Fold HAMP domain-containing protein.
Amino acid sequence: MTKVFHSSVKLKITVLVWLGSLVVLGAVLSYSYAQTRRIILAEAKEVALNVTAAAANKVEQDFRAVQKVALNLALTLQSCGTDSNELELLTLLRGAVQKNAEVFGAAAAFEPHAFKADLISFAPYYYKTPNGLAYEQLGSQSYNYFQKDWYHVPKILNKPIWAAPYFDEGGGNILMTTYSVPFYKRNEDQSSEERSTENFRGIVTADVSLAWLNQVVESIPVGQTGYCFIISDTGTFVAHKNPKLVMRESVFSVAEERKSQSWRDVGRAMIREAQGFVDLRDELGDAAYLAYARIPSPGWVVGAVFPKSELLFEVVNLHKATVVMAIGGSLLLLLASLLVARSIAAPLRDMAAATDRIASGDLDIDLSDIKSTDEVGQLAQALTHMAAGLKERDFIRDTFGRYLTKEVVNRLLESKDGLRLGGESRDISMIMSDLRGFTAMTSSMKPEQVITFLNRYLAKMVDILIEFRGTIDEIIGDGILAFFGAPEPLDDHPARAVACAIKMQLAMNEINRINESDGLPHLEMGIAVNTGKVVVGNIGSEKRSKYGAVGSQVNFTGRMESFTVGGQILVSKATYDRLADSLVVNKVLQVEMKGVPGLVELYDVRGIKGSYNLQLPDRYTERVPLEEGIAVQIDLLDQKTVSSVEATGRITSVSPTSAVLIMQHQIRQWDDLRLRLIRDVHQHIQGDVYAKAVEVSKTDQGYRVVVRFTSVSPEVYAIFREATMRGSH
């Protein structure tokens, strides 16, 4: 067994060191490969864009030469007017075709009776054949040139155009594209509009053979195995090394056949953009990069395909060589790892046996016989000290409950006295918070939704309490009791408690934003802050205890909290007297509190000055009067449940946070209410409003009750918001 363990330790150390080094080496190689690939690809992109730009420029020059031929012919015919004769015209056309390699054919197609009064159609056409020039008269019953796109479109548009690629059956009988230029009667005084209607004589054309264009494209060098192609302004292939694609397929038909959204996107980009470079499999399915550039004259696009295998050939070879060297280095590293593992296997075996004893509960171990002064020896000493420490802390761990603050944990671990049941009298500040309307909200939620919301809310509140070094006493549902000044003494615990309460209220804005996105009601929280003498310490039994606070001041804080409304912080007089100069107080409330003689002063705090410098936004927005009012049913709540149906009333003014009710039934200040909006006599509007009566007064119309909302359902909140917006206008 010893040999097996010894071997396994050596094996693990060797494997871990070796694999760790391989991971680092692999990361370095991957980074090197990625960087090299990125640099080469950037250079290749620049080269590819330059190649396509040069190709587009070359084709553009050829097209401009063709345009120039047609324009010159049109100007010549226009300058001659009706004086031109057939021989001169044929000589012009023949010369245009013979002298320009780019021009496949040229024609001059006249309007009826425009060339001669007795000729309805006259369109002499010269074009190239393998045997030389050929001549055709296009005006015939089988070839009605007046209906051809190359004739009637420029006539209507009154400007030269490039026709879409087509097969010229009855003319040149090849795939071609045509540049058409309209010409007119000679009259320099007439406007372009007049020329286009009354003086139009015909169309001069210059044709480009797609076969010739394909030869031009094939002559453009694109690496070793790359190639160029041209698509029209509709995406149709007009030149390609694969003749089956020319005039039969388009970028979009290829995309449809391969069900490739990326090819559709590339097709749109090629038609829309002037230049681009994309990583894409070519139309034959091979991995490649595609660069493209626009040919301005016809609006076509030149594409250049660069196979990835060729473009990244150098970086792949470099990577292979690097991998071979890395394998050799890793073998040497493996040998070194074996030697290191052998030197530390024995002391590790002894420490492994010691940890087995600790795991079984035997904490009486001694590893002083390990004399090594390196990290292994230090580990042996640490293990010995750990066993001794565990003996001292075992009973703490057995009785230690879940304390929520780091300070309590540290104190109990540092002293066994911290475990004694009992405590001490301390002057501390307490805060108690509770969500308004939470019980009503959760009644319509799934259990998992309730837990998700509570965890989100409590996580935020606990983070803030820890930030201000508070000790959390209890979390009961949505209620939190925490205090400041114990076990860690804090001289500024009143200010710290108030600042923490303000920060908690500010955090409710973020929580409500998330609530709104989840379709949950807008919730608000009430917080009470009090300062006084309490007893703090471990409360419970030897088996289970908690660090908490007890005393009349804790109970007083709970009663204070019941008077808060949503978004409010009420501070006791004891706390206020210590912070009077630094608190921003909205108003002072005088309330009757159960078990406390006389009126109790509570301070509605909106901010704190000094080092904390925190301020709550003004939540008491102006209420908007409602002309017709909103009928409501008013239910009195007792301990968050409906005790009875009290009365009906009418909302006369409303804001996002409060409303004014007129009702005939008397209620008391601070009563908790549920409001249900009435659509008609027999139907309520979906959704409830929970509120607290903060002011009650008698008027001629009945009792005027100012209520502060604690929870508003999304449906009712939308009605109130619409009413306030309509009323404000």
